[in-house]
Amino acid sequence: MAQNVSMEDFEALLNESFEIDTPEEGSVVKGKVLAIEAGQAIIDVGYKMEGRVDLKEFANPGEAPTVAVGDEVEVFLDRVENARGEAVISRDKARREEAWDRLEKAYAAEERVEGAIFGRVKGGFTVDLGGAVAFLPGSQVDVRPVRDAGPLMGLKQPFQILKMDRRRGNIVVSRRAILEESRAEQRAEVIGNLTEGQEVDGVVKNITEYGAFVDLGGVDGLLHVTDMAWRRVNHPSEILTIGETIKVQVIKINKETHRISLGMKQLQDDPWDAVEAKFPLESVHTGRVTNITDYGAFVELEPGVEGLVHVSEMSWTKKNVHPGKIVSTSQEVEVMVLEIDSAKRRVSLGLKQTMRNPWEVFAETHPEGTPVEGEVKNITEFGLFVGLEGEIDGMVHLSDLSWEERGEDAIQNYHKNDMVKAVVTEVDVEKERISLSIKALDDSFSGAVEGVKRGSIVTVTVTAIEDGGIEVEYEGAKSFIRRSDLSRDRAEQRPERFQIGDHIDVRVTNVDQKTRRLGLSIKAREIAEEKEAVEQYGSSASGASLGDILGAALKTGDE
User: Which family is annotated (predicted)?
Assistant: First the structure.
């Protein structure tokens, strides 16, 4: 029985010695390079075990293998023995295990790790971190998008571990975080040496619609388009090119955000300092149209000095028209200085003031009574608008269309674009109004009544008989005698006692050139005749009757 126990103890001790001496599969063991042949290194891992490892496993990506006979190396033992009786070992797996231990410590301490980009994969790149392979997303390569990553391949450089999972074998790193940190340190150093108002040299790195980014030696500053020149700059590319070295002034530094505002025009004399002396009020200058808006046009008087020609100051005649229909960009125009506000850096200009007021010119060249001819531009309910010289319009009121017809009827005879003749009756320069008359062209009335004046006795012809009186004609001019003016005797104030074609002597009571009417009266003629007879042959106070006086007058007339 004792012998049996001693045999069991011996067996246990033997097994225990085997377990101690034989390395555990899946662990990292040390070995010695015995030989190098056929692209492989033969390594003695002890315990009378040898294995083979491809030489490429001893090389970093993009480099030649660095291993020689006699070197001591660590390898990963996959299996103690394969079919050929050799140990299955791996240098890559040993390096990976070693790297993971090292990387986990660096990740926990938020330390940088060194690696090299060696491959491109979807969405980014692969990085060798000394045995462990990590993923570098494309967005984490640089602070700006990288078009060509060739110069970065195989280059040893620091990375920051963003995330790692040993169980899944995932590591995500960033090169951008390192660059931003270094850049922040560099920016802080450069900004610390800058002061507002300082003049510095910079290189144009990028140009945008609103300005340009200028490298001041490790830190970028923004040169806004409005600070490039005193004149209007439509796009920064007009005066800057990428890579150009320029002198700028530091306008403002934000210590918290590290933003720097730069200016170029601040290094030049401000043209506004001499504006009032160079461009006195009411002086006329030639300028170039730089910009056109809905409310007017900007005109450059000299580089850096622009003035606004408001739409109301662009033309004497073109009202409610877009400025672009009067002037065009880059056109040279003559303008008058109307107002200057140096504090607000504003100059008000006038375009129409450089030309004479067309209403003043028209008033000088077309006094009242001047005949004119023009095209009907518009027809309204109150008259016609006729185009005249100088691109201005005159108006013919309804009441000035015809002597014979009512204005509402006479206007139906006219159409847009008709050519008409008229007479100037009034010009109001201040209100920019010209009154015309078409009916004033008919001067037959003046010829007919020439020499006729109030109190004259004329012979007329009856042309119509109406209830209220009779219509008569004198030398082509028509007039109307009311019933009350047909006789001194009320009983004789009957229109029907006259016939069309009768010739009647009447007294002129009024000559109205404006309405082309004669005021006529039979009654006034009779009263005038009676008065004349009384004065000549006696008076009612002498006892003579009216019949006696008229009889004597008639008798004298017969003799």
Answer: Belongs to the bacterial ribosomal protein bS1 family.
